[in-house]
Write a structure and sequence with these properties.
Blueprint: H1 3-31, H2 36-46, H3 49-60, H4 65-76, H5 78-86, H6 96-103, H7 108-115, H8 123-150, H9 153-159, H10 161-177, H11 179-195, H12 203-221
């Protein structure tokens, strides 16, 4: 099978998952004051669920560009580590221009699918996975933003829970396997409840403070190999 078509095929489950999750982001974005076009453009140019949600939070609370940059660095720095790991699986045809282009589409799910491939990853295959996943993500955002503007507020609020359901689905399985993840998730939740109410601390800055503090705490307490 053509590598590009194989990538499209393998990326269908990702696209279906993204379609439902980004639906919630679309609703959240329009409820935060963004237009449908702005919501879609954010998804089209970012492709990062947690980063987008945090970014919309910064926008809606009139945060600064510095705050936005720091938050995105903290939230999305894991993609750099994924890219380094995935580079060990890429074919020699993955030249520098291809690496730069493909780096746009490295998400948790796309990384997992590409890394699990039994063969070396070629550019065409990865572009196929990224394309179909992006279509699902952007399409879901558009539908969510569109319905968020025309549906009653109560229904829109109920549908908006989809996004937080995704975060729960990501954290819970990992927390069951690792005490470190469970500790970090619970501590971050409790810490955020207090930090957000400190005068002068915006919601976006609260996320940055909690993420950095909890990361250091978890790294210090749960060192590699301790749980084994």
């Amino acid at each position: 099978m053509n590598k590009f078509l194989k990538g499209l095929y393998d990326g269908i489950p990702i696209a279906l998952g993204y379609l439902s999750v980004s639906f919630g982001f679309g609703i959240l974005a329009v409820h935060s004051g963004l237009t449908i076009f702005q919501s879609v453009m954010i998804s089209l140019t970012n492709l990062t669920s947690a980063g987008q949600v945090a970014g919309v939070d910064v926008i809606s609370t009139h945060g600064t560009l510095i705050q936005m940059a720091i938050m995105q660095l903290v939230i999305n720095i894991r993609y750099s580590l994924m890219a380094i790991s995935l580079s060990q699986k890429t074919d020699e045809s993955f030249t520098l221009p291809h690496r730069i282009a493909a780096s746009f589409g490295i998400t948790d799910e796309i990384f997992a699918v590409c890394y699990a491939s039994p063969d070396k990853v070629v550019p065409a295959y990865m572009y196929g996975v990224i394309l179909i996943a992006a279509v699902g993500w952007v399409g879901g955002t558009f539908l969510g933003a569109l319905l968020g503007e025309i549906l009653p507020a109560d229904i829109s609020a109920a549908l908006g829970i989809l996004l937080y359901g995704m975060f729960t689905a990501i954290v819970v399985p990992a927390a069951k396997k690792s005490r470190g993840v469970l500790f970090a998730a619970v501590l971050a939740a409790f810490l955020n409840m207090f930090v957000r109410h400190i005068p002068g601390i915006s919601a976006g800055m609260s996320v940055i403070i909690c993420a950095v503090a909890v990361s250091f705490a978890a790294a210090a307490i749960f060192r590699e190999g301790d749980e084994e």
